[in-house]
Design goal:
It is a single chain. The chain has 9 helices and no strands. The chain is mainly α and about 240 residues long. It has 2 domains: about 45 residues, no CATH class; about 180 residues, no CATH class.
Length: about 240
Amino acid sequence: MKLANPLQYPLAVLAGGIFLVGGVRLARLPNVVAIPAAVAIAAGGAAVLQSREPDTVELANKAVNREFQQVRQQAVPLGTRADELNEEATKLLTASDQIELLGVVQYACDRTQELPQKIDQLALRMEGNDALLSVDGLEKQLKQAEIKVRNSKGVAQEQWGKLANSLKRNISLAKQGEDARQAQLANLSTLIAESGGVLQQLQNKLRTADLTSSVAADELRELSDEFKGFQENVDVLIT
């Protein structure tokens, strides 16, 4: 079992704190005994909790791995929030008989919950040095994004335009012989952050809107489509 930082596991710290307070005040243990024991309990609890977590992907390049871990840390809570939104939407939209709208929201949420796994797959491909970030691979992604720009309108067109510009910068880096992986991960980080903002708007609107109103339903549908659009952007970067 690997050592783990107890500060990253609040439950382990709580267990150590409870033992320390109980040991000193109730059991009358001396500080020289209670404090090391509390530290050992916190460290042991952190190690146990860490061992129960799924294996994480680690990249050999430290700078790229740092970027990857940050992106994944963004994706995991976003997936959790999407699951919560899915539950809320199921209750509220079913009660208001907005079944079609519910399907749109659920689809967007399902795609978001898949995000951590998709990012892990991307990291494995990055580590395998496949053609994902070659000039040819990036140009293929750019073509997909440019097709979407031509075929989209409004917010969706703006999203695809931003992605196309980012891919052009990555292609320039790759042509100069630089590692484009960090730039690609930075693109993902931006998409996830913006997606989280739209998710929050969607959740707020869902909680406060008159769900029997066609105007409110249209606003929710637009936000759901925008939310889904971010996931489609991510798919272009990953595939």
